[in-house]
C-alpha cells in the first residue's frame, strides 16, 4: 500500500470518527430537548389511551387538577436519563447506515428509509425499559386498582424486577420495534425529501424555517401512520401483575377495536399531533445544525 493510500485511509477514518462523534453529541442534545418540551402531552396521551377519557382536554384537566404541574412530569426521570444516550446511539446508527449505503450501494432506492428503519430498531430496543417505567409510573393509580399485587411505587425498577423479572422491562418490545422502525424510516425519508425540495436553487442551502417545517410535517405524517401501533404498545405495557388483560398483540388489537371501535386505535392522537409539529421540527433542526457545525469544526 502506498504512502498516499495510507494517508487517504487515515483521513477517511478520522473523518468517519468525527462524523460519528458529531452525530452522537447532536443526537443526545436534541433528545434531551425533545423530552423536556414534549413530556406533559405525552403523559396526557398515555392516560387517554389506557383510561376512559373521551378527549385529550379532559385527560389534561384531570391530571392537572388532581396532580398539579408536578403531576404533568410524573415518570419523566427515566426517559430523561435514558434519552440522551438513546438518541446519541440511534442517530449515530442512522449516520453509520447512511454512510454504508452511500459507499456500497449509492443508487439503492429507499436507502434513507432503510437507514431510518435501522435507527428505529436500535432506538426501540434501547428505549423499551424506560418506556415501560414511564408508562407504569404515569398509570400508577389505574395499576393499583387493577392489581392487588402492585406495590405502592409500581413504576420503580425494583418492583418491575420483583414481579416480572428482567423480561418485564422489555414488555411490548415487538410493538415498539414495529412502530419505531416504520415510523423513523418514514420520517427520515420524508424529511430529507421535503428538505431537498425546499433547498436554495443557488447554493443548495436549507434555511432554519425550512428545516423546522420539513421536520414537523414529516413527523405528523409518520406518527399518523404508526399511531395504532403506539396504542397497542401503551395498552400492553400498562398491564401489571394480576391485571394482565391481553394474551398477545393480536388479542390486544381485537379487544381494543371491540371496546373502542376503530377510532379507539387513534385515541390520544390529537395531543400528539399538537406537540409533534414543533417538537419534531425543532429537534431535527437542532440536530442538523449542531451536527453540521461539529462536522465542520
From TrEMBL:
Domain of life: Eukaryota
Entry membrane topology: Multi-pass membrane protein
PROSITE patterns from the UniProt entry: SOLCAR
Cellular component, GO annotation: mitochondrial membrane
Transmembrane helix in keyword set: yes
Main localization, broad class: mitochondrion
Species the sequence originates in: Palpitomonas bilix
Cross-referenced Pfam families: Mito_carr
Compartments, as annotated in UniProt: Mitochondrion membrane
Listed name of the protein: Mitochondrial carrier protein
Family the UniProt entry places it in: Belongs to the mitochondrial carrier (TC 2.A.29) family.
Repeat region (Solcar), residues: 18-100, 107-197, 206-293
GO molecular function: transmembrane transporter activity
Keyword annotations of the record: Membrane, Mitochondrion, Repeat, Transmembrane, Transmembrane helix, Transport
